[in-house]
Amino acid sequence: MNNIKLALLSILFLGVVVLVSFITKKLSALRDPLQVWEALNNVGLLPIRVRAWIFSTVVGFANPYSRSINFRITELRKGKSCGVMRETKSISNPFRCVHAAALITFGETVGGLAVFTLLGKKDRAILTNINAEYIKVSRGLLTASSVVQPLKDRNVKEVINEVLIKNAAFETVAKLTLTWRVDLKDA
């Protein structure tokens, strides 16, 4: 019985080592978050929740401040990003709701991923403005989503996207408008 447990632990350890090696190789491709997302989704042995946790951890390496909130990216496609964040004591304000700075960080991360999925390897984008409208007190499980139209005009210098943050009852609690300055290189 002990030999079986030892063999299972050895296999699990080996799997973790291979996974860490795989992720560190993909970190170099973080300029294209969609490539990392799809690579993780091609690892069929991992449950979806584990893949979402790994991807969110990888995003935390690229954007260290996003590690201050506990979020998970649940969907990532060209021009679209969705994520969830649960209210915790560390992101709550004295009024027992999610702090505005945590909402901004959550929205910026989700909106930024939607924008970055549309960029090429040499393209750049930097956030220049955030406008936040707080509609309702934010408590519990929150979902953020952002959709960005494809960049058809390569001469565009600014991209504006909207991020909606909703609560578990699907009520909009915050609406963020993000303005990105983009530098699109020749394809």
Topology overview:
Layout: H1 2-27, H2 33-41, H3 48-62, E1 71-77, E2 80-86, H4 100-116, E3 124-134, E4 141-147, E5 158-166, E6 172-183
Antiparallel strand pairs: 1-2, 2-4, 3-6, 4-5, 5-6
Helix pairs in contact: 2-3
Approximate strand percentage: 25-35%
Let me know the number of strands: 6
Shape: flat
Largest beta-sheet details: 6 strands, antiparallel
* Order of helix and strand elements from N to C terminus: HHHEEHEEEE
The main sheet orders its strands as: 1-2-4-5-6-3
* Termini Cα gap: 59 Å
How many DSSP helices? Answer: 4
The helix content is 25-40%
Mean pLDDT: 85
Rg computed from alpha carbons, rounded to a whole number of angstroms: 18 Å
Could you say which structural class the secondary elements and strand pairing correspond to?
A: alpha+beta
Detail the poorly predicted runs.
Answer: none
Structural notes for this entry:
The chain has 187 residues and is an alpha+beta fold. Helices cover 36% and strands 28% of the residues. The protein has 4 helices and 6 strands, in the order αααββαββββ. It has a 6-stranded antiparallel beta sheet with strand order 1-2-4-5-6-3. A hairpin with a 2-residue loop joins strand 1 and strand 2. Helix 2 runs antiparallel to helix 3. The termini are far apart.
What brief labels describe this structure?
187 residues; alpha+beta; 4 helices; 6 strands; 36% helix; flat
Quick recap:
The chain contains four helices and six strands, in the order H-H-H-E-E-H-E-E-E-E. It is α+β, with helices and mostly antiparallel strands. The relative contact order is 0.13.
